[in-house]
Design brief:
The complex is a heterodimer of chains A (about 190) and B (about 300). By secondary structure, chain A is mainly alpha-helical. Chain A contains eight helices and no strands. Chain B is α+β, with helices and mostly antiparallel strands. The chains are: A mainly alpha (about 190), B alpha+beta (about 300).
Chain lengths: ~190, ~300
C-alpha cells in the first residue's frame, strides 16, 4: 500500500533520513560543551547507542557506508593529534554487523535482553577502541576513564533507548527478517 | 512457482554473499583510512581542520544556550551566598591592593635594573580572546574547540591561558576555529620551572586531573605547595605563566594540580608571543589586527 502524494513522498524521505540525521546530531553533540562533569565524558559513546538502537530497528536506513562516514567524522572532530582516524567507524560497522547477525535474539524480546545485548556489544566497542588506541599511539593509556564511560553509558541506555526505538513504530520489522514475508521497509502496517 | 522459489533462494543467497562481502569491504576501508591517517599526517590534519571549520558554527549555536543555562544556574547559586561572598571579596581586595603596591614598586625597581644591565626583553606578547565552543574530551583526549582561527592570527603552538594560569596549547588551527590541547592531555609535554628552586622539569599529562612532574634533577628539593611556572624553553611560550602547584611528592613521583578549572572554562586567551618556535609551521602574520583582537 503505497500512496504517491507529495506528503507521502516527503514522509518516506523524512523517515529514510531520520536515523542518519539523529546519528549526525549525536556525533555533533559529542563536542557540545555541556560542562556537566560525568555526562560530558560519556558523550563520545552516545553515537554507539544510536547505532545499536537503529541497527536493531531499521538497519536498512542506516547503511554501512553512512556509518563509515559518521565514524570518520567523529574521529576527525574528537581525536587529538596521533589518535587513529577511522576506529569509531570500524566500531560502528562491527556493532551494526553484530546486531544484524543476532537480530533474532534481540528483536521482539523483552527489553532486558536488548539491554544485555547492548552491554555486551558496547563492551566490545569500548575494548576495541581502547586496545586500538593503545596500540596505535604505543602509549600506556589509563583504561579507567573508558570504563567509567562504559558504566555511565549502560546506565543511560534504558533512558534513551525507548525514545530512539520509536522510530520503528510504523514498520513491520519487529520480526526476524526471514519471517517478515513480503513486507518491505518503509511500508506501513494496516 | 517452484522455479520462482528457486530463483528467490538463489537471489537471497547472492544477497547474503554481497552483504557479507560489503562488511569485509567496509572493514578493509576503515583499516585503509587508519593506515592513511598514520602515514600521511598532513592530510589528516587538513581533514580535521576542514571538519572543525564546518562544525564550529553549529557548535557555537549549541554552546550559546548551554552557556546561558549554566550562567543562570551559577547566578542562582551565587545569590544564596551573596553576603559571605561580598565579605570574602572585600577582604581579598584589601590583600590584593597591598600586593599591587608591592608589584608596582618591584616593577619600577625591575625596570631600573634592566636599563642598568641593558637587558633585552623577549618579544611582546599580545592576546586573542576566544570563546570555547566545543569540548574535545573523551577517554583518550583532553581538549577544547575555540571560535578563533588563522584569520585573527592564531597559530599552532601558542599558549592558551585563563585568569588562573595556563590551560594548554593550540594544536590545530582552521580558518575560524582551533583546537586546544589541555596540559592534562596524554600528549602534553611542557617545559616548566619550579618557582622556588628555579629547577627545570617537564610537566607531563596523562589524561587524569593531576599532572606528573618528570626529569627533575633532584626530586628531594620539591615540596608540596611549590608553584610550577612555564620556563619558556622551546621558545613558543612566554616565561612565568603559572601552571599549577605541587600537591603530592612521594616515591619519586611529583603530582601537580593545575590552577585552571577545566570543567568550567568559557573564555580563554590565546597568547601570541610572536615566535611559534619548534611547534608546527609558522602561519602568515595577519596584515592588521582585525576586530575582536585585543592587543596589549
Amino acid at each position: 500500500m503505497r500512496a504517491d502524494g507529495t506528503l507521502a513522498i516527503l514522509d518516506r524521505w523524512g523517515r529514510a533520513a531520520l536515523p542518519g540525521t539523529v546519528l549526525l546530531f549525536f556525533v555533533l553533540l559529542t563536542l557540545a560543551p555541556l560542562r556537566a562533569p560525568y555526562l560530558s565524558d560519556t558523550l563520545p559513546l552516545l553515537p554507539v547507542l544510536v547505532v545499536f538502537q537503529f541497527s536493531l530497528a531499521t538497519p536498512e536506513r542506516l547503511p554501512g557506508l553512512l556509518l563509515l562516514v559518521m565514524g570518520i567524522l567523529l574521529d576527525l572532530l574528537l581525536g587529538g593529534p596521533g589518535a587513529p582516524v577511522g576506529i569509531s567507524a570500524l566500531g560502528f560497522i562491527l556493532v551494526r554487523a553484530a546486531v544484524i547477525s543476532n537480530r533474532r535474539y534481540l528483536v521482539g524480546v523483552p527489553f532486558l535482553f536488548q539491554w544485555i545485548g547492548f552491554c555486551i556489544l558496547c563492551w566490545g566497542y569500548v575494548a576495541l577502541v581502547w586496545a586500538f588506541t593503545t596500540l596505535w599511539t604505543w602509549a600506556p593509556i589509563d583504561p579507567v576513564p573508558a570504563m567509567l564511560q562504559y558504566i555511565v553509558m549502560i546506565v543511560i541506555y534504558p533512558l534513551l533507548a525507548p525514545l530512539l526505538a520509536r522510530v520503528r513504530a510504523r514498520d513491520p520489522l519487529n520480526v526476524p527478517e526471514l519471517s517478515r514475508g513480503s513486507a518491505r521497509p518503509g511500508e506501513t502496517t494496516t | 512457482m517452484a522455479i520462482r522459489d528457486d530463483f528467490e533462494v538463489v537471489a537471497s543467497q547472492v544477497r547474503t554473499v554481497v552483504q557479507r562481502f560489503a562488511l569485509g569491504l567496509l572493514v578493509i576501508v576503515t583499516f585503509g583510512v587508519m593506515l592513511v591517517g598514520k602515514a600521511d599526517t598532513v592530510l589528516v590534519e587538513h581533514a580535521r581542520v576542514l571538519a572543525l571549520d564546518m562544525v564550529s558554527p553549529v557548535l557555537e549555536a549549541i554552546a550559546r544556550p548551554v552557556a546561558y543555562t549554566n550562567r543562570a544556574i551559577a547566578d542562582l547559586r551565587e545569590f544564596a551566598s551573596l553576603r559571605e561572598e561580598n565579605a570574602r571579596l572585600r577582604e581579598e581586595n584589601a590583600r590584593l591592593l597591598a600586593w599591587q603596591t608591592a608589584a608596582r614598586r618591584l616593577e619600577n625597581e625591575n625596570e631600573g635594573l634592566r636599563s642598568l644591565a641593558r637587558f633585552r626583553e623577549g618579544p611582546e606578547a599580545s592576546f586573542i580572546t576566544a570563546r570555547l565552543v566545543g569540548d574535545s574530551v573523551s577517554a583518550y583526549m583532553r581538549g577544547a574547540l575555540l571560535n578563533v582561527g588563522r584569520r585573527v592570527g592564531v597559530a599552532p603552538g601558542q599558549a592558551v591561558v585563563t585568569g588562573e594560569g595556563l590551560a594548554g596549547r593550540i594544536a590545530e588551527v582552521g580558518e575560524n576555529s582551533s583546537r586546544v590541547l589541555y596540559v592534562t592531555d596524554v600528549n602534553s609535554r611542557l617545559p616548566v620551572l619550579v618557582e622556588r628552586t628555579r629547577e627545570r622539569a617537564i610537566l607531563v599529562g596523562d589524561n587524569s586531573p593531576r599532572l606528573r612532574l618528570t626529569l627533575l634533577q633532584s626530586i628531594a628539593g620539591v615540596q608540596t605547595g611549590d608553584r610550577i611556572i612555564t620556563s619558556g624553553h622551546g621558545g613558543s611560550f612566554p616565561v612565568g605563566i603559572p601552571v599549577g602547584e605541587v600537591v603530592e611528592t612521594s616515591e619519586g613521583t611529583v603530582r601537580v594540580r593545575p590552577f585552571t578549572d577545566f570543567s568550567r572554562l568559557e573564555f580563554v586567551r590565546v597568547v601570541d608571543y610572536g615566535v611559534t618556535g619548534l611547534v608546527g609551521p609558522a602561519a602568515p602574520a595577519p596584515a592588521a589586527p582585525p576586530a575582536g583582537v585585543r592587543v596589549r
